[in-house]
Specification:
It is a single chain. With 76 residues, the chain is mainly beta. The protein has a single domain (2-61), classed as Beta Barrel (OB fold (Dihydrolipoamide Acetyltransferase, E2P)). Helices cover 9% and strands 39% of the residues. It is built from one helix and five strands. Strands 1-4-5-3-2 form a five-stranded mixed beta sheet, with no helix packed on it. Strand 2 (22-27) and strand 3 form a beta hairpin. It is globular, with a radius of gyration of 11 Å.
């Protein structure tokens, strides 16, 4: 079940809340740990989920994406 939920997060994007390479994001009502594996995030950078491990989502900085993207998630 966990793999299915993690796969549903693939391609989702959200704005960074700081410059840390790790954090928490709520997607589809569940909290996920994430880790930036490519790039150095700054406050407000767009992060995109590209893969996952058994413990966390793996994301990259991708500022080509915008809030209007269908996969955008508001990072509360």
């Amino acid at each position: 079940m966990l793999d299915y939920q993690m796969q549903k997060t693939m391609g989702k994007c959200f704005r960074s809340k700081g410059n840390s390479i790790t954090g928490l994001i709520r997607i589809f009502g569940s909290w996920y740990d994430y880790k930036v594996i490519n790039g150095s995030p700054e406050l407000g950078d767009m992060l995109e989920v590209i893969d996952f491990t058994s413990r966390e989502l793996l994301v990259v900085v991708n500022n080509k994406l915008e809030e209007s993207d269908v996969n955008y998630i508001v990072n509360i």
